[in-house]
Amino acid sequence: MTGKILMRDGDSVLTYPELLERVNAAQSYYPALQTGSLVEFVSNLVVALARGGDVVLLDSDLSADEVAGLGISGRNEARKIEGAPFADIGAVLEAVKKSPSKISIFTSGTTGLPKKVEHTVASLAAHVRVSENYSGHVWGFCYSPTHMAGMQVLFQILFNRNAAVNLFRKSKQAVYESIDKYGITHISATPTFYRLVLPEKAAHPSVRRITLGGEKSDKALYGALLEVFPSAKINNIYASTEGGTLLASGGEYFKIPDGEEGRIIVDENNELLVHKSLLGESDSFILDGDFYRTGDLVEWIGEGKREFRFLGRKSSLVNVGGYKVNLEEVEDALRSMPEVADALAFGQKNSVLGNILCADIKLKEGAQADVARIRNFLADKLQPFKIPRKIRFVVSMESTATGKIKRL
Predict the structure, then answer these.
(1) CB–CB of 153/244 below 8 Å?
(2) How large is the average pLDDT for residues 135-148?
(3) In a domain, 50, yes or no
(4) What confidence tens digit (pLDDT) does each residue in 33-61 have?
């Protein structure tokens, strides 16, 4: 196999010349392809978009009943297409950029029923940067390709003709072996992904850019990442299936971009709202006037309300004995404990208190801690009603299809 590599997925490899051959040879494509092969997914997607065909993105692990429940018919059924051959891969990618195709994505957060949102290449790739300076990037692909973040990274890779290595749901050992073997320079992933591959004793200097998104992150995680990736700069992004990438930051604090002050706002209850003009298309959107309520809570930093940080989701607030407890605040406190690798806080229904606060805790490799030690640690960081009454030690945390920690 010759030519510049586009994607490595285990033993499967797709090159740019091979992608050109597949596009020109294709007489059909799958509008609703369900596959566990990233190479097949990318090939089918590029064929569809280059020829103007609409696509519905389906997670590979959805059952037939779940697909039917989403209102999708024709799973893995081919549809004929036609068109003149493309002269080169540049012409293919230019057709993808200008594609009129509708791309249907289903939300898949930590809780709630999936909702279909329609995007185009233009809306998904609005923040993709293309430059000769980016031509040598090698990406660790750490998202499901069927969701917003995966699509945005994929377009960044394609439009700069970069190489990528699939790291999604790979073991910690496999992740670091791939980083070193293939000289990965860029990684974009959820904080949950990064926590799963930490701690790590060795440094991996080939990585020059780390991007976090999809969940609230914190300074402790940034520090741990810089120890493992000493050559990297860190970016933090705020994006959603509904609106794509909306905010970017070099750390924990965000600012509303110049020119967007009237379209991205914070209401009196500190919830972030996004104007409908920034959204994709969906029948499921419920607007408050012209604005969509994101469900994300923020806190202004300093005077003048110019910078803010994310506190968590409105859905992460639980009633414990008449007090509102932010589960993500509890998790941040737990993760700041030296022995803790990751934590999940949740409420357990109780007829007297409303909820009993509980926590699942994953300890770092070789670390030891008991319930008394954890509660004593939290006593200096949280009010008494925010300290979990039930604590369980677990060996792993379940994640969603988008790579986020799965809430109970």
Answers:
(1) no
(2) 95
(3) yes
(4) 999 999 999 999 999 999 999 999 999 98
CB 4, CB 13: distance < 8 Å: no
CATH number for the domain that contains residue 345: 3.30.300.30
Q: How far is CA 273 from CA 187, 241, 313, in A?
A: 28, 14, 13
Mean pLDDT of the chain: 92
Rg (CA), the chain: 22
Instruction: Say what percent of the chain tops pLDDT 70.
Output: 98
Give the angle 118-399-374 at the CA atoms, nearest 5°.
135
Q: What confidence score (pLDDT) does residue 302 get?
A: 78
For residue 357, the surrounding DSSP H or E stretch is strand 354-363
Residues 362 and 395 sit within 8 Å (Cβ to Cβ):
yes
Which of 315, 238, 313, 328 lies closest to 274 in space, CA to CA?
238
Is the pTM here over 0.85, yes or no?
Answer: yes
Q: What DSSP string describes 394-405?
A: -S---B-TTSPB
Total tally of structural domains belonging to the chain = 2
